Amino acid sequence: AAYKMNKLHLHLTDDEGWRLEIPGLPELTEVGSNRCFDLEEKSCLLPQLGSGSTSDNFGSGYFSKADYVEILKYAKARNIEVIPEIDMPAHARAAVIS
């Protein structure tokens, strides 16, 4: 608190990935949160930024609804403001492909 480090900005979406589970839209995380080598991008997004050709890499993954709620509770208990960012309409490649 002395250094005013009480804000957490979460960049949850971009062209390279969708990182938040939306229960009514499972395809966003089924496809948009994974990177692998699939030229048609039916099961994942093409690898970018050195994430590798298989889906078991550091470029894949997302926060589940439960994960996100836990983050919010943890932050609130410590007086940290969580600022979620969902880029739309620009930087929406992951959502569009999904």
UniProtKB/TrEMBL annotation:
Family: Belongs to the glycosyl hydrolase 20 family.
GO biological process: carbohydrate metabolic process; glycosaminoglycan metabolic process
UniProt entry tagged with the keyword Transcription: no
A cellular component annotation (GO) from this entry: membrane
Keyword vocabulary terms for this entry: Hydrolase
EC number per UniProt: 3.2.1.52
Single GO term (MF): beta-N-acetylhexosaminidase activity
Pfam families, per the entry: Glyco_hydro_20 (PF00728)
Catalytic activity field: Hydrolysis of terminal non-reducing N-acetyl-D-hexosamine residues in N-acetyl-beta-D-hexosaminides
TM region positions: none
Source organism of the structure: Vibrio parahaemolyticus
Protein name as annotated: beta-N-acetylhexosaminidase
Enzyme category, top tier: hydrolase
Domain called Glycoside hydrolase family 20 catalytic: residue spans: 1-96
